[in-house]
Amino acid sequence: MSGSHLPGAPVRLRPATGQDADFLADVLLEAFNWDGARHTSAEMLRMPHIAHYVTGWPRAGDFGVVAEDDTGRPIGAVWARTFPADDPGYGHVAPDVPELTLGVLPGHRGRGVGSALLDALVETAARSSVDLLSLSVEDGNPAVRLYAARGFTVVGREGESDTMLLRLAGPTPERPEV
Which whole number is the average pLDDT over 72-83? Predict the structure, then answer.
C-alpha cells in the first residue's frame, strides 16, 4: 500500500506514522462531529474516553492509513487500536480486537476516499494476522452503508450507536489456511 494511488483520483494512500498524530486528532474531531459541531478539538482532547483514540499515537499494535491529495496534504485517515476492558472504546468488543476510527475532511467526502481508506486498513489488518475489527457508528451516520457493504455486521448496541464487527478470518495468499 505504501504510496498507492486511488484509480481516477489524485489521492495517495500511505501508512500512518507518529508524525500524523495531530492530523489523526483532527480526523477524530470530524468523526465525532459527523452531524454538526458537538465538540471542539480542545474539549475532545480533555475527555479521556475520546482522547484515548489518539493519545500516544502510535502505540505498539496500532496501525492506520492516511489519504493525501495531489499536493501531499492529508485529507482523511483510518486507524485501529486496541483498548483494555477497563478503558474501552465506543465500539469495544474485546481487549484484543482493534477498534477503528475513520474520517475524511469536508470537501473530500463522497469521492471514494473513505472506501479506499477502509479497504486499505482491512488489507493491512489481514496481512498482520488480525482476525477481527470493530467500530461504533451512530444512528443516522451515512458511513454505516460503507461498513455494511464491506462486511461489518451489528453485534451490539450502546445508546444511539451500533457496535459493528468485521471477521477477517479465512485463507488469503498472505494468510494460508493452517
Answer: 97
- pLDDT for position 9: 57
Contact 76, 66 (CB under 8 A): yes
What is the rounded distance in angstroms from the CA atom of residue 106 to the CA atom of residue 109? Answer: 6
Q: How far apart are CA 24 and CA 79, in angstroms?
A: 8
The sign of the CA dihedral 172, 15, 74, 148 is positive
All cell numbers assigned to 146: 460503507
H-helix or E-strand spanning residue 28:
helix 21-32
Residue 123 grid coordinates: 488489507
Q: Are 103 and 27 in contact (CB under 8 A)?
A: yes
pLDDT bin (cut points 50, 70, 90) of residue 174 is very low
* Structural domains of the chain sorted by starting position, each given as residue range(s) with its CATH number in brackets: 4-167 (3.40.630.30)
3-state secondary structure of 176: coil
Tell whether omega for the bond before 58 is within 30 degrees of 0, i.e. cis. yes
Burial group, residue 21, by CB count within 10 angstroms (0-12, 13-18, 19+): middle
- Tell me how far apart the alpha carbons of residues 3 and 5 are, in angstroms, rounded to a whole number: 7
| Closest CA relative to residue 91, chosen from 154, 143, 39 | 154
